[in-house]
Design brief:
The protein is mostly helical. About 20% of the residues lie in helices and about 5% in strands. The protein has three helices and two strands; from the N terminus they run αβαβα. It is elongated.
């Protein structure tokens, strides 16, 4: 009975053995999305996963007679959704007029961009002072 394989073999290979080994890899995909809230972010990220048509023999090396028989990717688990920051206008005089925005990691996830708690204002000033005193 013939064996299904991608390895090419010829009469010079008589006496050699065919071996197959499965190796499991953890593939990590870290994605980011701008969304109005966590629910929308979860929905958008849930709709964008692996393009399984790209999981194929091309991601492996073929050399020295080694051929790839099968490639697969399966879902294992997801980490928690992590808040990274809020898009808001830069701290410049004409930022709003000029459309200058940045992502601020110290802005509250639930407070609108124009609102900032007293603690967040202090943290922002502290960070700004660090950069201006270091000449960055």
């Amino acid at each position: 009975m013939a064996i299904d394989t991608n390895v090419c073999y010829f009469k010079d290979d008589v006496g050699k053995n065919l071996y197959r080994k499965k190796t499991y890899y953890n593939l990590v995909i870290e994605q980011e999305v701008l969304a109005k809230d966590r629910d929308e972010a979860e929905k958008l990220l849930g709709e964008c996963g692996i393009d399984h048509s790209q999981i194929n023999h091309e991601i492996t090396e073929t050399k020295d007679g080694v051929e790839t028989y099968m490639v697969d990717a399966n879902y294992t688990e997801s980490g928690d959704l992590e808040y990274m920051g809020k898009v808001q206008y830069e701290d410049e005089e004409y930022a709003e007029e000029d459309g200058l925005v940045e992502i601020c990691s110290y802005a509250s996830e639930t407070i609108k961009p124009t609102e900032m708690s007293e603690e967040e204002e202090k943290e922002k000033d502290k960070i700004n002072n660090m950069y201006t005193t270091k000449g960055v």
